[in-house]
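Researcher: Let's do a round of design. I'm pasting the structure tokens now; please hold your answer until I've finished.
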């Protein structure tokens, strides 16, 4: 276990700026905008020969209501799980009532506290910290998170008060590689954070009945004991009955002979139509969501059954498909809908997102937890399909069967000839077809081959890509000389 350092303070004092500097990343959104951070961000950092965990939190508003009350609860949770707290205040704004309230809370928590007076660049250190002695939390340290001034001294002071790590090592690449990265994406207010909290079994994300509650992409590692899930086991068995021995692994192989599966869950901000994205902060949030899609192994596309399937849903689904990610479609807020409305939603699914026909559909209630286990079971199998190893002999036989059923169309006097196929990559599976005159193969025939290979290998939950490679004619030069 590594020591955990929580960064707390009222809104807009520079917590996320300090988090990015300590972790040497840009994972936390930073803007001159109070209340930008709302959920807890975790990151690994290193100072000298010591590794530690740093936690960024939302601005603390003890008397706040609504979403600010939820942000305060997230900050309190970070304090409770920390070994040391860095309390950040603003040198230029002076002491605010929230600072005094948070200082009282920290004293009651019993955690070691280091008081950091941020935005002190250009000020005499003694003058910058003078007013903050009255908080009664020890000697304040003047720092500048934006410029890096005295940040190393601050961390050295915090680590000196933290317990030594029981095993101060970085995770192996094998441990990282075994985690399935699952991104939850969708329009604002469809229940992404609620679904994430249900999967995690705790109120890890701030949820509020207001579009745009989540402002950043939040990565959370978690484990799931699959033995206790009867619903997921039935869903897995049903899915496995459609596979063959040399395509997808068996359930025992898929789960690596371990009952516990390891995931990294990515909760993202809602994506609206481009014309409605006006604030620069929201633009950066959308970029974070698109980056999370690229980073994920499997994407859960969450739709709102009560609002219906919109064109924006189809646009976002198209982006996921272009990225080549395995997909599971979750239709949320299904509970309590009249049958007429359910039938209408199913018709809209077939009409507006028919290009995701390879994906499993689950009608769920994230708030009540209904259908969530089966959803996660489909995530497992979509990941297995995306990472499937396809043998060259069987790929070639499948190619021959596809050509026998329907030959590629002629291009003038030339008919493309396809000789053999092999796998060129995974996530998504890439099949490379070798032959001659393949540059004349139309897109319609490419899509025919994609469907044929996917059906032959029972690849549910992932797109499949076909790439053509034309061989070089060894007699081309001699023919040109004649």
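Researcher: That's everything. Go ahead.
Model: Designed sequence:
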């Amino acid at each position: 276990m590594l020591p955990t350092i929580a960064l707390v303070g009222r809104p807009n004092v520079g917590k996320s700026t300090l988090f990015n500097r300590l972790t040497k990343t840009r994972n936390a959104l930073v803007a001159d905008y109070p209340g930008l951070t709302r959920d807890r961000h975790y990151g690994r950092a290193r100072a000298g020969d010591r590794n530690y965990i740093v936690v960024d939190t939302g601005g603390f508003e003890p008397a706040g209501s609504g979403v600010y009350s939820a942000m305060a609860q997230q900050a309190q949770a970070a304090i409770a799980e920390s070994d040391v707290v860095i309390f950040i205040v603003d040198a230029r704004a002076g002491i605010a009532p929230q600072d005094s309230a948070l200082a009282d809370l920290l004293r009651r928590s019993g955690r070691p506290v280091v008081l950091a007076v941020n935005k002190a660049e250009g000020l005499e250190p003694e003058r910058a910290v003078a007013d903050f002695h009255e908080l009664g939390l020890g000697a304040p340290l003047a720092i500048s998170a934006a410029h890096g001034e005295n940040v190393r001294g601050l961390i050295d002071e915090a680590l000196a008060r933290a317990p030594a790590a029981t095993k101060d090592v970085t995770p192996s690449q094998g441990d990282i590689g075994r985690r399935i990265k699952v991104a939850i994406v969708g329009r604002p207010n469809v229940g992404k954070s609620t679904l994430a909290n249900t999967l995690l079994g705790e109120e890890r994300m701030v949820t509020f009945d207001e579009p745009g509650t989540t402002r950043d992409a939040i990565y959370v590692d978690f484990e799931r004991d699959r033995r206790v899930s009867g619903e997921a086991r039935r869903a897995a068995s049903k899915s496995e009955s459609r596979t063959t021995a040399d395509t997808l692994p068996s359930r025992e192989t898929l789960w690596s002979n371990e009952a516990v599966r390891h995931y990294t869950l990515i909760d993202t901000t809602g994506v609206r139509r481009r014309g409605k994205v006006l604030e620069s902060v929201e633009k950066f949030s959308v970029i974070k969501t698109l980056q999370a899609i690229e980073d994920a192994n499997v994407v859960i596309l969450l739709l709102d059954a009560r609002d219906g399937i919109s064109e924006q849903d189809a646009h976002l689904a198209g982006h996921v498909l272009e990225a080549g990610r395995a997909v599971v479609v979750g239709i949320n807020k299904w509970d309590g809908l009249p049958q007429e409305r359910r039938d209408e939603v199913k018709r809209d699914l077939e009409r507006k997102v028919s290009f995701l026909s390879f994906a499993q559909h689950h009608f769920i209630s994230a708030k009540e937890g209904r259908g969530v286990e089966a959803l996660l079971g489909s995530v497992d199998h979509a990941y297995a399909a995306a990472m499937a190893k396809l043998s060259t002999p069987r790929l070639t036989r499948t190619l021959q069967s596809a050509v026998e059923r329907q030959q590629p169309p002629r291009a003038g006097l030339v008919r493309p000839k396809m000789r053999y196929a092999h796998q060129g990559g995974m996530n998504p599976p890439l099949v490379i077809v070798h032959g001659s005159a393949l540059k004349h193969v139309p897109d319609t025939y490419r899509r025919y081959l994609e469907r044929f290979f996917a059906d032959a290998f029972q690849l549910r939950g992932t797109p499949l890509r076909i790439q053509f490679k034309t061989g070089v004619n060894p007699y081309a030069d001699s023919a040109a000389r004649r």
